[in-house]
Input
Amino acid sequence: SHAAEFILPGFGFIYISGWIGWVGRKYLRAVSTSANPSESEIIINVPLALKIMTTGYIWPISAWQELISNDLVAVSEEITVSPR
Output
């Protein structure tokens, strides 16, 4: 059976890419409340980024909690639609 050749690397890839995405999302949400959010997106606040990265390993639990509390997905009124 070649399942182990795909399942473990597949789950590893999904976990690591989810970790990267979750940490990036959390960083952008954190710096959006700062005094100059545009600058913090270009010049990374390394201490804040490292703090967020070290807590990002529990991203599946955090994502589930935000999904349950309706904070994970944007409300349809907040999504812009281009004129047609």
Notes: The chain is about 65% helix and 0% strand. Residues 3-31 form the longest helix (29 residues). The radius of gyration is 17 Å.
